[in-house]
Amino acid sequence: MSRLFKRLASTIQVKPLPSKAHLHGPLPASSFPTGYILTGIHAGVKKNPALLDLGLIVSTSDHPASAAACFTRNAFKAAPVVVSQQILTQNGGRARAVVVNSGCANAVTGRQGLEDAWAMVRETDALLPPSVSTAKNHTLVMSTGVIGQKLPITKIVDGIRSQSTSTRTLASDFSAWERAATAFMTTDTFPKLRSRAFTINGTEFRMAGMDKGAGMIHPDMGPATTSFTPLHATLLGCILTDAAVSPRSLQSALTYAVERSFNSISVDGDMSTNDTILVLANGAAVSNDGKVVEIDEETDKDGYNIFRTELTKFAVELAQLVVRDGEGATKFVTVNVKGALTYGDAHRIASRVSTSALVKTALYGEDANWGRVLAATGSVAVPYLDPTKVSVTFIPSDNTVPLPVLVNGEPETVDEVRAKEILGMEDFGICIDLGGIGKEEATYWTCDFSYEYVRINGDYRS
Amino acid sequence: MSRLFKRLASTIQVKPLPSKAHLHGPLPASSFPTGYILTGIHAGVKKNPALLDLGLIVSTSDHPASAAACFTRNAFKAAPVVVSQQILTQNGGRARAVVVNSGCANAVTGRQGLEDAWAMVRETDALLPPSVSTAKNHTLVMSTGVIGQKLPITKIVDGIRSQSTSTRTLASDFSAWERAATAFMTTDTFPKLRSRAFTINGTEFRMAGMDKGAGMIHPDMGPATTSFTPLHATLLGCILTDAAVSPRSLQSALTYAVERSFNSISVDGDMSTNDTILVLANGAAVSNDGKVVEIDEETDKDGYNIFRTELTKFAVELAQLVVRDGEGATKFVTVNVKGALTYGDAHRIASRVSTSALVKTALYGEDANWGRVLAATGSVAVPYLDPTKVSVTFIPSDNTVPLPVLVNGEPETVDEVRAKEILGMEDFGICIDLGGIGKEEATYWTCDFSYEYVRINGDYRS
Fold first, then answer.
1. What does residue B346 show for φ and ψ, rounded to 5 degrees?
2. What is its EC number (chains A, B) (predicted)?
3. Cβ-contact B62, B242 below 8 angstroms
4. pLDDT tens digit string along B321-367?
5. Fewer CB within 10 A of the end CB, N or C, for chain B?
6. Domains B21-324 and B332-446 share a fold
């Protein structure tokens, strides 16, 4: 039993978490899309009055914005997911506002949960400026936090009523965007807010957005039209653009983007019940000739493709922030799988490697344990996988020479000093080449598994 | 950033691992099956000369024993897995010996690895007493340890040659069985050895066996006849009986038993490349009338069913020991899923819940966070899953009253004191009732995720 005693006697060395402060900073007001006002307040869902827990986002355009969303495929869908899905379907992909609360997921809350989510919609609808096309249920709703607790709905309703779109409690400056992004946060350590400019057919557009998520991160989201319904969600995101895009094309661009961004990240392999990514396109940016023409896949393939590419890049940027802020994460690792016959095969292998507890603890230990990478790869049922063709390479983030550890199924004599050097970096990559059987590839972003992860999740509710 | 500072300042409280010493103890010599001699020695694969790393098991029966096996379905199969599969197929399910080494998995070792595995077979064959039916390749081989390192084959060959089946270095007393079981160990904290007696048609038989495994435990094993081939394995087991069973029926009984035992446990969700469970049935127990008749599914359904049931119970007993000794484990949790339309659906849900990092950290934190159980349940694609029908109950191990936390999709007002009481036990159960949609159920055994798990796997190779 000396072995057991040795274990008990060992002191656990905790690496200090690197500061993530540099990942958030001010953005110029000019980088935000026009036609949106926002706020974030403390409504009282969270106990600490210094923490924001209610966010409001309103499109000020006369017409409802195009809206699209991807929701968790979890069988247990939280009330806000069910309600937002219904609204999107009823309104044919149009919406004017988003309301979000953190601190409580409003998941597994039965009929009361649905009533509460509808109350949030109704109260936010009441803030909207009157417009030609005013209709009911123009607000999409999101919640994040602990499962199985009822929303403190009176506090939330009071919070929404304390705001007004006419008296400038909602605004469009950086501070307003930052407050809204902060209201999304749960175990996040910084608000996740980014913006981006792009040009289609000579007109400049902008998109900006925020997301949140640190744990229960392994999304698998699809559009509302497929028949599923979610429950305790932890990835929430909202992207706002002043481009004009038809609802149908907005959804197809988002579905494509989400598959290659939010559906390609993992913190802990746990799919949430509330995962939701929303996008609004209000068309408030006036084109050079003053006309607003909706981008549509059928009528302007080139314009659509530019939009889809920009949306995908932006979604990747937001998704990566979640991994960087993963609970207890000290590493940001890009897993790239090449040489598959289908994108789906490459994606499944990248996902398995990215969620392997043994791979993730080795990453934390800065141990180039490629055997674990291979074991995870081989555990995915891909019939054409040939062990004698597979190569694994560690890719440093500083553009220095990559380190092959396995070439065509044969282990290399690994320079352990160099391996330590690469794995000592905060960012690095693992490339798994299946060996030219196919030409498809997929990329996943993951983090390591640390003592901090266990600590955070061993007492999350307390 | 005060939140981040708080994290950095926090001291990680490490719960001492409970001693597992009581899980191993002497067994009476009369409880072992007749006709087997064994040993375990230090051959030099492991650095520490006090640790055994080479085990030998020989059936002394005049005729080769019936043999069956289940191997990992990992695409990367270690050399010993490939070799044992070939031998079993070539010999039509007969074998006379087993050789096993720990300390090195002989996985991803290319052609040299296969040659080394064959050398272990050849050297052990040479120890076998001559018999009427002597044939080549009557030894099955297993290895466990680190991936990608070559076997120190000279040391292993010397170790095998130092033994002899005629001069009693192999023996059948408890000490010999214990040494063999000890030679299987890697990060295990105790040797896993059990025995069992059973009666078929008036004759008493015995089975005994050993297994090992503590990490990279999430087996998915099938018989050798399906076309797959494995690589870094961490679950090894060997069951020996003095019953006579036809090779075909031995395989079908083992496949059934493994599905409900070793394929229903998880420590970390990582499927290994070397997972192997072997069974030998040498027929050395003489029936009352002196005749040896092989149990066969076709000719004696009742006898076969008794054997299969006994084998399954015994496999469950051995499999549970692996979970109890899971790396860093402080809990032994039984996950039971009821009310599914198929065993496969129930098994997939039980597996997902058992591997969820969030569920496992909550178990470590003794937090009755049923929301995480539900989120994991809902992340399995089972089309008929109806959230409003699902119930979740925590089951104490002391036969006191179970604690329902969710009934027909509605959260109960949970008595947190009682919840803490149950989750404070070393053993307890989680029952997930899908709500009577079907009648099938499956049981999984899992453990928690602790700081110790991260520590052990953050520096496994060093």
1. -60, -40
2. 2.3.1.35, 2.3.1.1
3. no
4. 999 998 888 999 999 999 999 999 999 999 999 999 889 999 998 98
5. C
6. no
Measured between CB atoms, does A21 come within 8 Å of chain B? Answer: yes
Per-residue pLDDT, averaged over A450-454, amounts to 86
Q: Are B462 and A367 in contact (CB under 8 A)?
A: yes
Assess whether pLDDT exceeds 80 at residue A217: no
Q: Which of B109, B356, B455 sits opposite A12 (nearest CB)?
A: B455
| Alpha carbon separation from A130 to A111, A134, B285 (Å, rounded) | 31, 6, 90
List, in sequence order, every residue forming a beta bridge with A77; answer none if it has no partner: A230
- pLDDT, tens only, B205-233: 999 999 998 777 666 776 654 322 222 33
Annotated binding site of A for substrate: 186, 212, 234, 327, 457, 462
Can you read off the two tokens belonging to residue B407? 């009934």
User: How far is Cα A73 from Cα A70, in angstroms, rounded to an integer?
Assistant: 9
pLDDT in tens, A329-386: 999 999 999 999 999 999 999 999 999 988 999 999 898 888 889 989 988 989 899 9
**DSSP code, position A224:** T
Encoded tokens for A24: 């958030």
Q: How far apart are CA A440 and CA A434, in angstroms?
A: 10
ipTM over the 0.90 cut-off? no
* Residue B426 near residue B323 (C-beta atoms within 8 A): no
Q: Is A212 left (phi over 0), alpha (psi -120 to 50) or beta?
A: beta
Q: Has residue A234 got a pLDDT over 80?
A: no
CATH topology of domain A21-324: L-amino peptidase D-ALA esterase/amidase (3.60.70)
Quick check: B6 pLDDT over 50?
Answer: no
A75 contacts B385? CB cut-off 8 A: yes
Class of the CATH domain delimited by B332-446: alpha beta
> Which residue in B189, B358, B198 sits closest to B269, CA to CA?
B358
Q: Where do the structural domains in chain A lie, given as residue ranges?
A: 21-324, 332-446
| Chain B residues near residue A453 by CB distance under 8 angstroms | 357, 361, 454
